[in-house]
Design goal:
There is one protein chain. The chain is of the alpha/beta class. The protein is about 40% helix and about 20% strand. The protein has ten helices and twelve strands. The protein starts with a helix and ends with a strand. Bound molecules: N,N,N-trimethyl-histidine. N,N,N-trimethyl-histidine binds next to strand 10. The site of N,N,N-trimethyl-histidine has 12 residues, from strand 10. Keywords: Methyltransferase, Transferase.
């Protein structure tokens, strides 16, 4: 039994590794080099992101958590009693506990995440803290197309998508996800989505280029990961982290800038980097209440509630169909 599990695990790892290799080779071969941001979150990347959430400059997590605390009753009223919470991209589950603790008679919790270690840990902890809750984790990339098997009636399903992760999706991806959430949660379904709001550009850029260099380490870790997992020979000291505001996209972008003319080899392919050439590694889109309303309309939803923290830094939206 044990060796069967191991070989399944190995096959899964190989599959994931191939997908990583495919994305990296394609991204570095393009005229404008880019790497998908979801590969930032290996074990070290996830630990570095946890550190980011505690930084003075990174206001997002604190602002969203304060809304979840201050509005716990309003959120419970919005969700209603006997609900099942479906979380898209469940991480450590800290915010989930805040929501669940306020709900009246919550029935179920369905966390969806590709990171199986996080998923198992979070599921176990939440199941033990909320003994009457039926916890059914789903190990998937929430951008894939899949079905959610629910028990009982379709009443009281609420999607939960906090953390401004929506901001990492482009318009097409965001609309595909919103449509999928509509299918999962049904006509009576509801959703609670947290997104970062547009504000002073310096404040935005500081959040993505902190003075302690944690975000720089988080970004550069992507090249370290390519070196270990794909046998690359990136010299990390020859690249620099930058955060940029893209006014057209209304997004903070993270890039890695090549500090000199250089070549890097991985998977038997060589890539050339000009001095000052950048590799785009992440976009974090920032919304206004109006631009977020337009986005969700296009995905088949309507904004029923718009909650903000006291400094209007972050938005938590209650959506209905
Ligand atoms: C977890 C994706 C929402 O975009 O703000 C933090 C990731 N990147 N610092 C964000 C991140 C750089 C974060 N998300």
């Amino acid at each position: 039994m044990h060796h069967v599990n191991n070989s399944i695990e190995r096959a899964e790892n190989e599959l994931a590794e191939n997908e990583f290799a495919r994305d990296v080779l394609a991204g570095l071969s393009a005229d404008v080099k880019t790497l998908p941001s979801r590969w930032l979150y290996d074990e070290r990347g996830s630990a570095l992101f946890e550190e980011i959430t505690k930084l003075e400059e990174y206001y997002l997590t604190r602002a969203e958590t304060s809304i979840l605390r201050d509005r716990q009753m309003d959120i419970a009223d919005f969700v209603g009693s006997g609900a099942t919470l479906v979380e898209y991209g469940a991480g450590a589950g800290v915010k989930t506990e805040l929501v669940l603790a306020g709900l009246r008679d919550p029935r179920g919790y369905v966390p969806i995440d590709i990171a199986d270690t996080f998923l198992a840990e979070t599921s176990k902890r939440i199941a033990s803290r909320f003994p009457s809750l039926c916890v059914r984790p789903i190990e998937r990339n929430f951008l894939d197309v899949f079905e959610v098997p629910f028990d009982g009636s379709g009443a009281g399903r609420t999607g939960f998508f906090p953390g401004s992760t929506m901001g990492n999706l482009n318009t097409t991806e965001a609309q595909t996800l919103l449509t999928q959430m509509g299918r999962h949660l049904g006509d009576k379904g509801r959703a609670i989505i947290g997104v970062d709001l547009q504000k002073n550009v310096d404040k935005l850029l500081n959040a993505y280029d902190d003075s302690a260099g944690v975000t720089a380490a988080f970004n550069l870790n992507l090249f370290a990961r390519i070196n270990t997992e794909l046998g690359g020979d990136f010299r990390l000291e020859q690249f620099k982290h930058v955060a940029r505001w893209n006014e057209t996209e209304k997004a903070v972008e993270m890039h890695l800038v090549s500090l000199c003319d250089q070549r890097v080899t991985l998977c038997e392919q060589t890539f050339h980097f000009r001095a000052s050439e950048t590799i785009h590694t992440e976009s974090s889109r920032k919304y206004t209440v109006e631009s977020f309303k337009r986005l969700v309309h296009a995905g088949g939803w309507r904004v029923a509630e718009a909650w903000q923290d006291g400094d209007a830094l972050f938005g938590l939206f209650g959506l209905v169909r």
